[in-house]
Write a structure and sequence with these properties.
Catalytic activity: L-threonyl-[protein] + ATP = O-phospho-L-threonyl-[protein] + ADP + H(+); L-seryl-[protein] + ATP = O-phospho-L-seryl-[protein] + ADP + H(+)
CATH superfamily: Histidine kinase-like ATPase, C-terminal domain
Distance between the termini: 8 Å
Pfam families: HATPase_c_2 (PF13581)
Shape: globular
Number of domains: 1
Organism: Halobacillus salinarum
Number of strands: 5
Radius of gyration: 15 Å
Protein name: Anti-sigma F factor
Bound molecules: adenosine-5'-triphosphate, magnesium ion
GO molecular function, one term: protein serine/threonine kinase activity
CATH class: Alpha Beta
Helix content: 25-40%
Oligomer: single chain
Strand order of the largest sheet: 1-2-3-5-4
Length: 146
């Protein structure tokens, strides 16, 4: 099965659950396991939260784009913001690194994304924004039942 969807929403925290539910509903066509579904909802939350609080530094009226593609058992999720961007991507990916310790962030968002997904690409330019592209192959036996 091949399918694709794109969603654009404002950078307000209420939209984290919108993004999670939209992706969960989209991928449920592929018969994911409960664990796959929970993992994917979690990584979408992490990436959207990052766009809101880091990319746009909690300014509420900026746009976030979520693109979701599926082909056979492969899922691709892209989350983009046009916010402040990331200076040093390698440092940002490190477990426990956070630029906002005063906000009680734990610096585990990217580590969670990497653990739950097969591949996480980060493209970012200071002053221009950030794009997170995540891929995951669902377990083929269940996906083939579709
Ligand atoms: N969309 C983004 N725009 C700008 N900077 C970002 C973005 N996403 C992540 N970062 C930077 O990368 C760092 C690491 O992100 P990560 O999600 O791993 O940790 P965190 O958000 O700081 O903490 P946690 O996710 O555990 O609450 C952030 O502290 C921030 O500096
Ligand atoms: Mg985070």
């Amino acid at each position: 099965m091949k399918n694709e969807m794109k969603l654009e929403f404002l950078s307000i925290s209420e939209n984290e659950s919108l993004a999670r539910v939209a992706v969960a509903s989209f991928i449920s066509q592929m018969n994911p396991t409960m664990e796959e579904l929970t993992d994917i909802k979690t990584v979408v939350s992490e990436a959207v939260t990052n766009a809101i609080i880091h990319g746009y530094e909690d300014k509420n009226e900026e746009k976030i784009t979520l693109t979701c593609k599926m082909e056979n058992e492969q899922i691709e999720i892209i989350i983009e913001d046009k916010g402040i961007g990331i200076d040093n991507i390698e440092v940002a990916r490190e477990p426990l690194y956070t630029s906002k310790p005063e906000w009680e962030r734990s610096g585990m968002g990217f580590t969670i994304m990497e653990n739950f997904m097969d591949k996480v690409d980060i493209t970012s330019k200071p002053g221009e924004g950030t794009m997170i592209r995540m891929m995951k192959q669902l377990t083929s036996t269940r996906a083939l039942c579709n």
